[in-house]
Design brief:
Elements: E1 4-5, E2 10-11, E3 16-17, E4 22-23, E5 28-29, E6 34-35, E7 40-41, E8 46-47, E9 52-53, E10 58-59, E11 64-65, E12 70-71, E13 76-77, E14 82-83, E15 109-111, E16 116-117, E17 122-123, E18 127-129, E19 134-135, E20 140-141, E21 149-152, E22 157-161, E23 170-171, E24 178-180, E25 187-191, E26 194-199
């Protein structure tokens, strides 16, 4: 076993845990979940049945990742974040009978490479968060988030762009439609409401 699980964590025997991954106290990893290499699952975090998590991901304390969520490599999920899975939640059907697992169809939150979801945010499925996007703490995401977008608020709306470093980009003084990372100098190009990496920069 090339991963670490604390004694109070509950990891189902059918779950797959990648090399170098750490699962901390009171976390629960459900049936057939798949976690990549070098992930960190914080205290009290929950990973639902069949959830797929890539390499180098971090789930902070008490994050709740419900099936059938899919997280790409390098995703950050902040403390107490919730990824939901029911677009029309009800405990009972119209006749008042308690719903069971087969009485509804789970829908997914999908998060692209390198994206981050800030503390206590809620992502309301079905929704996709693009590569390297940043969801500000306390936001409620109800619509898809483009690559590199910074979104915030309730409901979350775009407030700018971020680069791979997670720092808010500034518009280039001499080149309209070009954005620069103040930390790395990397350049990005905006076209038709989308941002793409332009070149590695300086």
């Amino acid at each position: 076993m090339n991963y670490r699980v604390q004694p109070t964590a509950d990891v189902d025997k059918t779950a797959e845990i990648g090399d170098g991954t750490s699962v901390w106290e009171l976390a629960q990893i459900r049936e057939e979940a798949r976690l990549g290499a070098h992930c960190v699952v914080g205290r009290g975090a929950y990973v639902g049945p069949g959830v797929v998590i890539g390499d180098n991901c971090k789930l902070q304390n008490y994050a709740l990742v419900y099936e059938p969520a899919v997280l790409a490599d390098g995703v950050f999920i902040g403390p107490s974040v919730v990824l939901t899975n029911d677009h029309n939640p009800r405990a009972v059907d119209p006749e008042g009978t308690l719903k069971r697992g087969g009485d509804w169809e789970p829908v997914a939150v999908r998060i692209g490479e390198g994206a981050a979801v800030g503390a206590r945010s809620v992502c309301v499925a079905p929704v996709e968060i693009g590569r390297w996007a940043l969801v500000a703490a306390g936001s409620v995401v109800t619509a898809d988030v483009p690559d590199f977008a910074l979104v915030m608020g309730v409901p979350a709306r775009q407030a700018g762009w971020v680069g791979r470093a997670g720092v808010r980009l500034t518009e280039h003084a001499e080149r309209p439609g070009v954005w620069e990372c103040p930390q790395t100098g990397a350049l990005y190009e905006e076209k038709d409401g989308r941002l793409t990496e332009h070149r590695a920069a300086r």
